[in-house]
Amino acid sequence: MQDSIFLNKLKGLETERPPVWFMRQAGRVLPNYNKLKQSYTFHELMEDPKLAAEVTLMPINDLGVDAAILFSDILVIPNAMGMDLEFTDHGPVFSKPLKGLLNPTDHLVPAPEKLEYIYRNIEEIIRQRPANIPLIGFCGAPLTTLCYMIQGISSNPNFPDAIKFLFQHKKEAQRLIDAIADLSAYYAKKQIEHGVDAFQLFETHANLIPAEMYVEMFMPAVRKISDAVRSTGTPFIFFPKGLGTGLKYITPELADFVSIDWQMPIDHARELVHPELGLQGNLDPRYLYGTQDDLKVQLEKYIPFYRKHPNLIFNLGHGFLPDIPYENAKFVVDWLKSVDWKK
C-alpha cells in the first residue's frame, strides 16, 4: 500500500494533521448511497461484492476521508451462530431471540461458513480501492452482540430483558459471551487474511452495566478478539461507548487506539486513558445539524488538543445520523484538511 496517513498514525508515526474517517460513513448521509437504496435492499447491497465495494468506497470519493470501513453489519455474528436473521425495510429482525429460552447457548448452531460472502466483499474492495486508502474491518463487541441476541431488535435502547439476564443468569451469560468471543476472534482473523488493514471493535452499549461489571464479565472476551487481531500485526481500535471512567481500565496490552464517545470531553479522556494509547473521536454528530460557522467553532477546539496530544484520529463520538446534511459532513473533512495543525 502507498503511504497512508491513517495507518501512519496508528503506527505512532508523525503526521501533518489528524487522519479522519467517520463511523457510519457509508450510508444515508450520502446522496449517492440513497440513490442506490432506491434500486437495492440493504441485504442486496451487503451480499453482492461489487455493490458492497461501491458502498464501502463511496465516502472516499464523496467525502474525501482517509480510510474506508467495510460495509456490513454487527449482526452477522449472531446469524453465523445459528440465529435466523432477516434484513427488512425497517431494519434487521431475529425470528427467535434468545430471551425466555432455558440454556440458550445450547440452541446455537455455529455456522461460520455463513460469513464467507463477507470475505469475497473484502477481496473486491481491495481490488477497487485507491492505493493509499486502507480498509478497516470490524465486528460488534460481546456485550452489544449479546444484547441483540437475547432481546432481539428492540425500540428500547436499554435492552431490559438482556440486562436482566446478565444479573439473573451470570453463568449462562458467560457461556454466551465466550461463544460470541470465539466466533468474533475467528471472524476478525479471517477479515485480516482477506485484506483489511485495521480492525475496530464496536461496543455500542457499554453504558448499560457498571464499568466494574463490564471489566469482570466482558473485558476478557474483548482481549480474546484483540489478541487475535494484534497477533497478526494489525492495529486494533476499541470503541466502548458510554464506558465513562471505565476508560482507565483500557491498557496498551488491549488496544492501539481507543475511540471516545461524545459524552466524554476529549481532554478528560486523555487524562483517563493510558498515555501510550492513541485516541479517536469524538465530535457529537448532532453538531452537524447546525450551521457551518457553529460547526467550525467546535472543530477549532481540537487544534490546541492535537498540538499537545498528536496521537489523535478525528472521528465522531458515534455514527452519522441518517438525516445529517451531506454538505456539513463534507465541510468537516475539507476544514480538517485545510487547517495548519502545527502552528
Task: Summarize it.
The protein has 343 residues and is of the alpha/beta class. 43% of the residues lie in helices and 12% in strands. The strands form 2 sheets. It has a 7-stranded parallel β-sheet with strand order 1-4-5-6-7-8-9. Strands 2-3 form a two-stranded antiparallel sheet.
Keywords:
two-stranded antiparallel ribbon, 7-stranded parallel beta sheet, 343 residues, TIM Barrel, single chain, 9 strands, alpha/beta
Can you walk me through this structure?
This protein is of the alpha/beta class and 343 residues long. It has a single domain (5-338), classed as TIM Barrel. The protein is built from 15 helices and nine strands. The radius of gyration is 19 Å and the shape is globular.
Helix content: 40-55%
Distance between the termini: 30 Å
CATH topology: TIM Barrel
Number of domains: 1
What is the percentage of strand-forming residues?
A: 5-15%
Write the element-wise H/E pattern from the N-terminal end onward.
Answer: HHHHEHEEHEHHHEHHEEHEHHEH
Q: Rough shape?
A: globular
Largest beta sheet: strand ordering: 1-4-5-6-7-8-9
Radius of gyration from the CA trace? 19 Å
CATH architecture descriptor name: Alpha-Beta Barrel
- Total helices: the number is 15
Low-pLDDT windows of residues: none
| Largest sheet features | 7 strands, parallel
Mean pLDDT: 96
The class by helix and strand makeup works out as alpha/beta
CATH class label? Alpha Beta
